[in-house]
Amino acid sequence: MATVDQLVTAKFVLDSTGFNSSIKGINAELRNAGSELKEASAKLGVFGSDSDKLRDVQEKLSNQLEIHAKKVSFYNDRINETTEKMNENIKKRDDLKESLDKANKAYDKAVENYGKESEQAKLANDEVVKLTNKHKESERAVETNTNKVKDYENALNNANTKMIEAKGKLNDINKELADSENKWLKASDELKKYSDKLIINAAENDNLNIIKILVNYVSVNNCRGLALMKSCIYNYLETIEYFLENDVDIRICNYKALNICARRGSIEIVKLFIEKGAPLNLLRKYSNIVEVHDYLVDINRCDLIKDNDYDGSDSDSYSSDFDSDSNFDYSDIYDENHYGSDDSYMSDDEN
C-alpha cells in the first residue's frame, strides 16, 4: 500500500480518476490514524492518564496532524495547478475569440465579394464553424476548471478546519503531559529531600535494592560521599562495586573512602579504588598494615613501603567518625558543591 508521502508527492493528473484515487489514499491514511487515536484515547479513559499513555495519544495526534497538513498541501497544489490550467484555458479562449472574430469578418467579406454559395465563402464558413467549436470547447474548459478551483477551495477550507482541530487537541495533550511530568518532578523534588539520608542508611545496612531506586533521585556523591564511606566501613563489597560503576567520585574528602579501606586492611576494595584511578602513593602511610604491605610487594611497589609509627593497632578507630548518624551534620546535605576546588581532592602525599 502506498504511503501518504508517496501519494502526496506523486504527479497528480487533473482528471477525476487520478484525483479521486489520490485523495482516497490520503483519506484512508486519515481513517487509520483516527482509529489508532481512538484506541489510544480509550486507554486513557480505562487506565488513567499516566505519562506513557498521554505520550501514546500525543504520538497518534501528531501523526494525524501530519496527515491533515499533507491533505491541506494536496489541495493547495491542486488549486495552484488547476488555476494555472484555467488561466491557460482563458488565454486560449480569448485567442480563439480573436481568431473567430477575424474568421467571421473574412466570411462576410467573401460573401460580399463572391456570393454566399461561392467556394471562397464556403471555405471561410468552414473556418468559422471550426473556430466556433474550439471556442465553445475552451469555454467549457474554463468553466470546468473554475468549478474545480471552487471545489478544491471548499475542500481546502474543510481540511484546514480539521487540521486546526487536530492542533488544538494536540496542544491540550501537550499541556496535560507537561502538567503530568511537572507533577512527577515535584514528587521527585520532595523525595530528594529525604533521599540523601535514605541512601546513607541503605548503604549502612547494605540494602542494595533500595540504593538502586534512590540513585534515580539523588547523587551518590551527596553528603560528602558518606554513603560510599558507610559501605567501606562495613566492607560491603557488592554495594561498593555498584557505587563505583555508577560514577561515584572517589576523590571526595581527599579520597577518604580509600583511606578507610586501607586503614582497615580491606585490600580487595582498595584494589577497586586503585583501578578507578586513585593515586597509588596514598597507600604509603598505610604500608605497615599487613594487607597493604603485601599488596605493594605483589605489585613491585616497595618504594611506597616506609617505616612509620602506624602499626595498624587502631585499624577500627577510623570508623568512629562515621558509625553514628548523630555525629554527622545533615544541615548541608543538599550542598552539591561540597568538594571545593580540584586541589581539595588531593592528598597530602600528592601535594
Describe what you observe in this structure.
This protein has helices at about 5-10, 15-45, 50-115, 120-205, 210-215, 220-235, 235-245, 250-265, 265-275, 290-300. It is mainly α and about 350 residues long. The chain folds into 2 domains: about 5-180, Helix Hairpins; about 200-345, Serine Threonine Protein Phosphatase 5, Tetratricopeptide repeat.
Helix share of residues? over 70%
What oligomeric state do these chains adopt? single chain
The N- to C-terminal Cα distance equals 71 Å
What's the total helix number? 10
The mean pLDDT is 75
The beta-strand count equals 0
CATH class wording of the largest domain: Mainly Alpha
Assigned CATH architecture of the largest domain:
Orthogonal Bundle
